[in-house]
Amino acid sequence: MQLLMAAVSLALAAAPAQVVTNRRIDASFNEVVPDRAWAVLALSDPDALDDKLAPLLMGRRTPFRATVLAKAWLSIIDGLDEHGTIAVVAMPVGKDATLPQRLAILVPTTDPTALMTLWSPETIEPGLYRAIIVGQESFVAFKSGYAVISPDLDILRRIIGSDRGLIDRLSPYLRQRSDAHDAFLWVDTAAVASGPLLDRYAGWLGRDFGLTREFLAPLRQFRLSAGLGADGLSVEGYIHRVKPSSAPDDANTTAPLLAGLPDEPVVLAMGAKTGGAADHLRAVFKPAVSALAYTRIVDPSRAADYERALEWLAKRADTVAISVSHVSREGDGALGVTVVIRARGGAAPVLDGVRSVADWLRTGPFLATGVNGAMEKLVHTPAAETVGGVPVDHWSVRFEGEQPEFYAAFKNAVGPEGFTVRVGVVDAKHVVATFGGGSARFSDAVRAVRSGRAPLLEDQTIATAHKHVAADRSMEAFFFPGRWAGLINTMSERMGRPFRYPDAPPSDAPVAVTAEALGTDATLVNLFIPIAVLKERIALPGPGDGSPGQ
Questions:
Q1: Contacts of 330 (CB under 8 A, 6+ apart)
Q2: Does residue 335 sit in helix, strand or coil?
Q3: CA–CA separation, 11 vs 65, rounded Å?
Q4: Which of 273, 288, 289, 308 is the most exposed place for a label (fewest CB within 10 A)?
Q5: Is 28 helix (H, G, I), strand (E, B) or coil?
Q6: Cα 309 to Cα 364: distance, rounded to the nearest angstrom
Q7: Contact between residue 219 and residue 71 where contact means Cβ atoms under 8 Å apart
Q8: CB 269 within 8 A of CB 246
Q9: Can you name the residues that pair with 140 across neighbouring β-strands?
Q10: Cα–Cα distance between 252 and 514 in angstroms, integer?
């Protein structure tokens, strides 16, 4: 276990991720990592990473560079190539093997003899050594400029003797980009899901064990890579499915997916092209419903209903845009929600679908009796009003008679109308639904839809983040941590239960996420975290007077 901790320390020497433009993963690395590896955690050029992290960690009293600390832990004086690629490799072994017994560390070296100076190596056979590393018996050999270290001799021999490298296992997309990232985690999810590793650690996973296997089963490969630049942290997730899907040819788009959402202080704004997004989600939708059933939120016997709802949405809607906002309009509540659905055919069938969902909610699909009880009180008022020439239905739930104090506090938080959702057909293609803000919110959404624009993309903070994620995508989302904290604080205060969100970040910058379909069997997810948000998360109180950076 100590060697495992040393591996993690060395491979993740200072951080979540990084980007290095002057050094890439070299060809010899792909030769050393065997094609039968189950997982690889790799970091290139840790010395450059230290340089990139220095501005973020300034004032955190970090006494040494991460590379210095890692070398001290592994008792390395010289011979480490600090600009090489360091990796932890997990290999398949017998079902009784523990996780540390499956691991090997790959350490780039400029001088094998110097690297082993303090290890007091014992030669077992030519080119193979036994040594005490981090207080644990380990075996060491060298291949293509790397020291391969493992507590298991069989693992070591298999890595050294392999004539096929990791690149032979990668999908065409990853093969093309095998040298394009400097920090990544690659997992053969199909092997992990079908192998004995999950069985051995089922006790740790508890009742979620079956759910974990169910989630992994449809996937073939997974890779998470990342880069730290001047503007922020960019993360890429690649998911390769076992079976090709029936993704439509137009699964991705460069058109705005936030079209029709009003320009206001959103906490979360997201849009999806439902054909592509539904296809991305199909592989994980069933286990997601299983998770809701496990947590006793939904009735597991109704899982098929949720799956049919997703299929219906994919067929009827071309795009769906949703925003959650922290608003402060006089007389309104603090929370505002807007949903804009662009139909594939006519908008009227979509409105009929919304009514069907409301009818379904009355049938008690939840396990919580309180939720089912509330849904039974759902009242539909067709054409309750006309806003901007649009007939608007109302869907309302009233609690005044049963819980007057709670409902009064609830209305103070969300607005005088309490739980009231407005739904209407704006034109032949668009259905709009709003919550909070009364008729004014619905009117704002109608104007945004009719304008044919995406006003939120003109927000400078969102436009800046938008540049760092994929332009060709089927889903995009923007989340404002600072505004979220403000919304929680305001809602709790208005509910009469003041709660200060801890470490509320002051910046007004969003985290951006996009998803993109790669052909019919893979999905690419991009995440961008602005540098301002990173600095806020790192500048937490430390030793001293408790102030940030101390």
A1: none
A2: strand
A3: 14
A4: 308
A5: helix
A6: 16
A7: no
A8: no
A9: 129, 149
A10: 11
The pTM of this model reads 0.81
Cα distance between residue 121 and residue 114, in whole Å = 12
How far is C-alpha 242 from the geometric centre of its chain's CA atoms? 21
Helix (H) or strand (E) holding 240: strand 232-241
528-540: b (≥16 Cβ within 10 Å) or e: bbbbbbbbbebbe
pLDDT band for 19, please (50, 70, 90 cuts): very low
Q: Which two three-digit tokens encode residue 129?
A: 């050594």
* Interior angle at CA 430, CA 425 and CA 434, nearest 5: 65
Query: Using CA atoms, how far apart are residues 546 and 354, in angstroms rounded to an integer?
Result: 51
175-232 pLDDT per residue, tens: 777 555 668 899 888 777 776 666 655 554 444 455 556 667 677 888 888 888 788 8
Which sign, positive or negative, has the C-alpha torsion 164, 167, 168, 170? positive
For strands 430-435 and 475-479, give the pairing: unpaired
User: Amino acid letter at 323?
Assistant: S
Q: For the segment 427-485, what is each residue's pLDDT rounded down to a tens digit?
A: 999 999 999 888 988 999 999 999 988 888 888 888 888 888 888 888 899 999 888 88
Torsion angle, alpha carbons of 459, 464, 469, 475, to 10: -10
Instruction: Please give the Cα distance from 406 to 214 (Å, whole number).
Output: 40
452 CB neighbour count, 10 Å cutoff = 9
Name the 3-class secondary structure at 215.
Answer: helix
Distance CA 262, CA 479 (A): 16
Q: What is the pLDDT of residue 58?
A: 67
For residues 138 and 6, the answer to whether their CB atoms sit within 8 Å is no
Cα distance between residue 209 and residue 168, in whole Å: 31
Residue 475: its H or E element: strand 475-479
Helix (H, G, I), strand (E, B) or coil at 531: helix
Q: In sequence order, what are the beta bridge partners of 405?
A: none
